[in-house]
Specification:
2 copies of one chain form a homodimer.
Chain A: H1 9-15, H2 19-35, H3 46-58, E1 61-62, H4 63-70, H5 74-86, E2 90-95, E3 98-106, H6 108-129, H7 134-151
Chain A binds a DNA duplex through helix 5 and strand 3.
Amino acid sequence: MLKDVTPNTAEIARTDAGLASTLRVSVMRLARRLRNERDAEDDLTPNQLAVLGTLARCGALTIGELAGAEKVQPPSMTRIVNCLVDKGLLQRRPHPGDKRVVVVSLTDEARAVVLESRRRKEAWLNKQLSELSLAERRILRDAAPLLERLSQA
Amino acid sequence: MLKDVTPNTAEIARTDAGLASTLRVSVMRLARRLRNERDAEDDLTPNQLAVLGTLARCGALTIGELAGAEKVQPPSMTRIVNCLVDKGLLQRRPHPGDKRVVVVSLTDEARAVVLESRRRKEAWLNKQLSELSLAERRILRDAAPLLERLSQA
DNA sequence: TATTGTTATACTCTATAACTATA
DNA sequence: TATAGTTATAGAGTATAACAATA
């Protein structure tokens, strides 16, 4: 009887002993460290911040889509959106073709806030990266697209 | 006049054009994806979950230290801790030497919850990793300790 | 007198239920 | 009749202020 040489999950887990574990820990820690690197957006609640981030990633979304993405109920999302509209960070627009639906998108001011937040995190990260060797930065340059691919699985 | 060859931050940012940006995005996305991979701990609030995670990483802490770590006020942490004690996930003990202080630590049951949460995330991650090539996994194995080092800067 | 933590109270945020408008 | 969103109300969760115990 021939042996099955197709790599299965258990076998890979063994040969890559601990890779998932160390990768999970390091990714979660770095993400937490980056998340703490905030400033201007400090007066926003976590959910408000998450809405800005989601809209920055996904573009304009409806109230229902936003509620689903942030895992809150529609009435809560109505409130969150209203609050951000009052702050001048979101704009509501009617859906072309379905008058029940409300489309929400970032204002220019919100885009500036998001960009500033990114700039701040990346400035911190650049400073840390500058203390690595060229070879080490090369490894991270190779790793980044792989992490991206994993996140989209 | 001799040119200064010491690499400065601006120069490195240019040569590593976009590294901080792509790395930040990929790390944050993978962390978000991993965070969504939960199940048993679904009946806990985000702050309750964070307290379990912090205690799992740092060991026993006082109410004040926990409040500082989670960025909530002491009365709120008292409430969160009481709730977790009622659920059998935390135990309170007097501080040896300072009777004002309360030391909080995980119960065996809480440790089991945390381990199960990690197991679940790592099972998902292992599955995704199994679809990468050996060379790609090698890159991630090299990258993990670098990410860890960045997070501790 | 200063510090750690708790209790009392008010405020904010979220969820459920009922309602309006549109499909 | 079903769906998207809003309004009204009740329920968690957090913060501020006042307090108790210890240093």
